[in-house]
Amino acid sequence: MRQGIIQSSKMFLVANRLEGKKVESSIRYLSDMEAVFMDKVAFSALDPQQPVYEVDCYFPVADNKSGGLFFGLTRIFPGKVGGEFFMTKGHFHSNNDTAEFYWGIKGKGLLLFMDKTRKVWAEEMTEGSVHYIPGNTAHRVINTGVEMLSFGACWPSDAGHDYGSIEKEGFSARVVEKDGKLIIIEE
Ligand code: S6P
Ligand code: ZN
């Protein structure tokens, strides 16, 4: 049952790519993410024009209007800065107590959660996985695989995005590969 639902949304996402909808697309390059990665020496050796992830969003109602839903499709490229995997910037919602769904479409990764006390936990993201992100919880996705990681998202139209606190304080855990093994380094 669960698998059936995900397979049909995958067909919609991958085959039709929001066809006929007004889609707003954006790309985050390494140059947009200098503060995010730990290893500044490894970072400076890479091409700043390397894309890290791209997002297609469908906003059927005005931003901030209550009662609507927004929809996003994110694709994170495979790659690392030093040992640290490519990832999204991550954010809290500005309207703090608003939740979100993520679901894995292709590839593999980790969804990292962090609450307001900086407690972190993670869920594995794979093709068909479903993730509920509660309110007051920052969320970031990390591509731990060797292919593109694609996932869907659906969130309330009045959620808003607070990137500032993550830009300033970061997450209290990092996901890196060391000696061929994936490890989570906690603060
Ligand atoms: C929006 C939703 C996603 C992200 C996207 C990029 O609430 O969580 O569409 O915007 O995955 O991540 P970020 O952290 O750069 O917004
Ligand atoms: Zn969000």
TrEMBL record:
Keyword set includes Manganese: no
A cellular component term, taken from the record's GO annotations: cytoplasm
Pathway(s) of this molecule: Carbohydrate degradation; glycolysis; D-glyceraldehyde 3-phosphate and glycerone phosphate from D-glucose: step 2/4
UniProt record, GO biological process: gluconeogenesis; glycolytic process
Reaction(s) catalysed (UniProt annotation): alpha-D-glucose 6-phosphate = beta-D-fructose 6-phosphate
GO molecular function: glucose-6-phosphate isomerase activity
Keyword tags: Gluconeogenesis, Glycolysis
Domain Glucose-6-phosphate isomerase prokaryote: 29-179
EC code(s) of this entry: 5.3.1.9
CDD domains referenced in this protein's UniProt entry, alphabetically: cupin_PGI (cd02218)
Enzyme class: isomerase
UniProt entry tagged with the keyword Transcription: no
Protein family: Belongs to the archaeal-type GPI family.
Name the UniProt record assigns to this protein: glucose-6-phosphate isomerase
